[in-house]
Specification:
D-Maltodextrin-Binding Protein, domain 2, 2 domains, 13 strands, nine-stranded mixed sheet, alpha/beta, about 375 residues, 16 helices, about 45% helix, two-stranded antiparallel sheet, globular
């Protein structure tokens, strides 16, 4: 075979290789709804590929809720057990509960101090995941937050505290609704906030240490919640609360802030609706970016997360596209958002409100105790 023919055949063969074979691939696995996958695939991925020629970002979703994070955990755990040199995922996006377990079992790498944006977050949830120390192993992608949505045409002076709300509901029966603990996490958050307000030492529930006997101190608070429920409406879910607010069937109810604004943007809530964050606090939770302990592209993964948590990307993607609160401290977004967006997200709930009254969920064992106690003491 002549030299020219060999070169021609080699060139032809190279042209038939799939594009992905020529690229450096960054595999990103995310728990959460489809919008999480779309955000990486359609927004972050193309941006990172443009800034890093030759890199291909591949996004895969593992499903919503803690079960989606569980699937990521099971994959990494299996690869660790198999002594694999390199694991399949380079970046993961996971919930608090499973992130803490993955750190405890040595499945994640400590990387946050290596990226410049790591210094832009001071939230306790950046270092504590439901009682597990995750400092350095995770970076918040965003902060989701619950608050009380209310119709100002029906509520002229909204309650400022859980105690105020308790009295308001007595005077206005069946005008407040929430979805209990089985219809969605906004109801779970409301219930956790109730225990923070009336159950004793909220800081202990958030930070530990865990003592099984603590739940006995919630008896009075849960009895009051059972009485409260007699004058409240139990809605069919997160969306159900918003739908009943939209139809004027209730005047107030706990919601996820991002869902509230998305519904408003879509014309499914009146633009006059407002939000209130009750004192002494209501829970929210982040989603975390993390890097598996044996990621094949660990350096590239850290670079991707640094881009995704930069102030401009947080402003354009997290806030503008999805109405989430930023994963980094909100003050770093000043000047990155237009006035209308800033005012919309931070007028009802100011950065100071969030600093004072946006709380983490309880550590995992207290969290489980609250749910169990609600079933036994409130529902029955």
């Amino acid at each position: 075979m002549s030299t020219k023919l060999k070169i021609a055949l080699a060139l032809a063969a190279s042209l038939t290789l799939p594009a992905t074979a020529l690229a450096q691939t960054l595999n990103v696995a995310t728990a959460g709804d489809q919008n999480m996958v779309d955000y990486i695939k359609d927004f972050l991925g193309p941006m990172f590929e443009k800034a890093n020629p030759g890199v291909k970002v591949v996004a895969v979703g593992t499903g919503p809720g803690d079960s989606g994070s569980q699937k990521i955990y099971e994959k990494l755990s299996a690869q660790k057990a198999a002594n694999a040199d390199k694991w399949d995922f380079d970046v993961i996006v996971a919930h608090q509960k499973m992130s803490g377990q993955m750190v405890s079992e040595g499945l994640l790498a400590k990387y946050r101090e290596k990226i410049a944006t790591g210094a832009l977050v001071t939230s306790p949830t950046a270092s504590n995941a439901l009682g597990t120390n995750v400092d350095g192993f995770v970076m918040p992608m965003f902060q989701s937050q619950t608050a009380i949505a209310y119709n100002p045409d029906m509520v002229k002076a909204p309650p400022a505290t859980y105690a105020d709300l308790r009295e308001w509901v007595k005077a206005n029966p069946k005008k407040f609704g929430y979805n209990g603990i089985k219809g969605g996490m906004s109801g779970v958050a409301f219930t956790a906030g109730w225990v923070y307000a009336f159950g004793g030492d909220a800081e202990k529930l958030i930070k530990g240490p865990y003592e099984a006997a603590t739940k006995a101190s919630w008896e009075a608070a849960l009895a009051e919640l059972k009485a409260f429920n007699q004058n409240a409406v139990i809605t069919p879910g997160n969306a159900g609360t918003l739908d009943m607010l939209n139809r004027g069937e209730i005047a107030m109810g706990p919601v996820w802030v991002d869902m509230f604004y998305t519904w408003m943007n879509d014309g499914k809530l009146p633009p006059t609706m407002k939000l209130k964050l009750l004192s002494p606090g209501m829970p929210g939770q982040p989603m975390y970016y993390a890097v598996p302990a044996k990621a094949a592209q660990a350096e590239l993964a850290a670079k991707f997360i640094a881009m995704a948590t930069s102030p401009q990307v947080q402003a354009d993607g997290i806030v503008k596209k999805f109405n989430w609160y930023p994963g980094i401290d909100a003050k770093h977004l000043e000047g990155k958002l237009d006035d209308a967006t800033w005012k919309k997200l931070f007028s009802d709930l100011t950065p100071d409100d969030l600093s004072k009254n946006a709380k983490p969920f309880p550590i995992a064992p207290y969290f489980n105790d609250i749910l169990e106690s609600y079933e036994k003491k409130v529902v029955n």
